[in-house]
Structures are given as structure tokens and as C-alpha cells.
Specification:
Rossmann fold, alpha/beta, 148 residues, globular, 5 helices
Amino acid sequence: MTRFLILNGPNINMLGRRDPAVYGAMTMEEINGRLAELAETLGVDLVFYQSNLEGNLVDCIQENLGKIEGIIVNPGALTHYGLTLKDALIDSGVPLIEVHLSNPQAREQWRRVSVISEIARGQIAGFGWRSYTSALEMLTAMVREEGS
């Protein structure tokens, strides 16, 4: 079965409490639940991981090498400076979609630069929790099309 890694960076564990006007009221666990339901209908398997530490995210990617066919990543603040994370994502050798709950382009200037976007197949941002479900649908379709 096709397996994807859902990778969440710093502060994503605080969703539901962290500025709901920007990030929404849904918790990370609720988003993961929505993703799990969608994954079942799409016939894919998901591995969920969140850490506030860049090295732990790198370890997770490395531990899943050869076990996953794609990654959906919300790097949090590592979006802007996570070069170690970027290298690990490159080394994974699998398609990658970057997601954000809010639209970084509509926020502070420093949030508008992503070191991850240049290695991602695409970025889905600004649709709250739906950014994740949209990414899962897109990644599933891409992997199936490229695998056939």
C-alpha cells in the first residue's frame, strides 16, 4: 500500500490554542483524524510525526527512507531557515508537498521566504486544515500517475 509521511514542525502541536484567527480552531490531532479518514477512502497509509526540534524531524525522515512514497510537510518556522530539514527532504528522494494553514504571502515579510518551496512539487497555503487534505489528494494522484 502507498504510504506517505505527514511531517509537522515546531508549534504545530499547539494548534487549537495558538492564535485561532490565523491558524484555525482545529487541533493537530483533529487534522490528523481528517487526514486518516481521507487516506482510508483514497487507499493510502499515513505516518504522522511532529516535533519542535529540527534534528528529530530529520531523524524521522531518515527512519522512513524506503518505506514512504511521498511527504506532506508543514515545517512551521523552519520554513524560513531549516536547511538541515531541507537537505533531509532532498535526500528522501520522494515527492514533497509543502503546506501551511495560513497564507505566508499575506503575512509579515520574513514569512514570505521558504527554503522548502524550491524543492517541493508545490505549496498549498491559506486554506486552514483543508491545506492538508488538498495536499493528500494531490500527492496521491501524482504518485499514482507517475507510478503507472
